[in-house]
Amino acid sequence: MESSTSKFVRFPLLVGDTDTTNYTACTIPWRFPADDPTVPTPTELSWINLLFSALIRYRKRAESDTSVPDAANKAEIFAQRYAKILEDLKKDPASHGNPLNILLLCRLREQVLKELGFRDIFKKVKEEENAKAISLFENVVRLNDAIEDEGKRLENLVRGIFAGNVFDLGSPQVIIFVDNSGADIILGILPFARELLRRGSQVVLAANDLPSINDVTYSELIEIISKLKDEEGRILGVSTSNLLIANSGNDLPVIDLTRVSQEIASHASDADLVILEGMGRGIETNLYAQFKCDSMKIAMVKHPEVAEFLGSRMYDCLIKYNEV
């Protein structure tokens, strides 16, 4: 299953004019020039082991994928193949490509799944979580709308996407790289986007092209929005005429902003604020990314390795706001 995005481009709002100037996608340095290239570093081993620990969960999801014939057997093959890759990397960090980082580990995992015919092993759980969240959406929005104090209302909305802070939301156009299905997108991001629309902003929601874990995809987000809109194209009284759903071109839970779709790049020319939401996009990659406009990274810390790097605790919330 190939990406519907035929050509990748550099996100135009990144500072610098080339793929390498002032931008490194991966936040956490896994090795340094003085490290022996044939020996994995402690940080590399830690992340390899993290991917190992998730294998059982992935195998079980793959086993239950009814769209794939002989799913149980193929799920076991997937687990064995990916475990072999991880073992290879422990012996030789360059055995499956350079540089060894979270982008490569996720890419290799998705590659093995797709080779065995698995396209979206989290599809069922995403559908279940989306249905639950849609049933709660109106109540969440009504509660937010009932907060008369603007600052408190904005704080409550931001808390809904895993952080608590108040900031200026008066930007004419906003691009939000979104994260998970279910409560994250429906009860977190969409009430937040609705408030921006109510204020007269244009909002672009950028979602993955292809499935990866439980991240919401472009096609899934279009379907979610259609279920929330009324016959006049409003979401609980707010027009969606300034809401755009865009395909980011991405197919991983992390993102390299030198490889995005031409579609999302075209929306960047008028953007005044870029938001990267979720640990994969906003911390593990792009925490230090610099943009030509105001930017914000907002996420919850959910990996011990990330907490250790940040000097934080598990489930701490992070907001990093950069004003140009």
TrEMBL record:
Gene3D superfamilies noted in UniProt: AF1104-like, Uncharacterised protein PF01937, DUF89, domain 3
Residue ranges annotated for the Damage-control phosphatase ARMT1-like metal-binding domain, each copy included: 173-318
Cofactor: Ni(2+); Mn(2+)
GO molecular function, a single term: hydrolase activity
Highest taxon in the source lineage: Eukaryota
Keyword Nucleotidyltransferase: no
GO terms, biological process: coenzyme A biosynthetic process
Keywords of the record: Hydrolase, Manganese, Metal-binding, Nickel
Presence of the UniProt keyword Amino-acid biosynthesis in the record: no
SUPFAM superfamilies: AF1104-like
A single Gene Ontology CC term: nucleus
InterPro entries found in the cross-reference section: ARMT-1-like_metal-bd_sf (IPR036075), ARMT1-like_metal-bd (IPR002791), At2g17340 (IPR016949), At2g17340_3_helix_bundle (IPR035073), Type_II_PanK (IPR004567)
PANTHER family reported for this sequence: PANTOTHENATE KINASE
Protein name: Damage-control phosphatase ARMT1-like metal-binding domain-containing protein
Species this chain originates from: Trifolium subterraneum
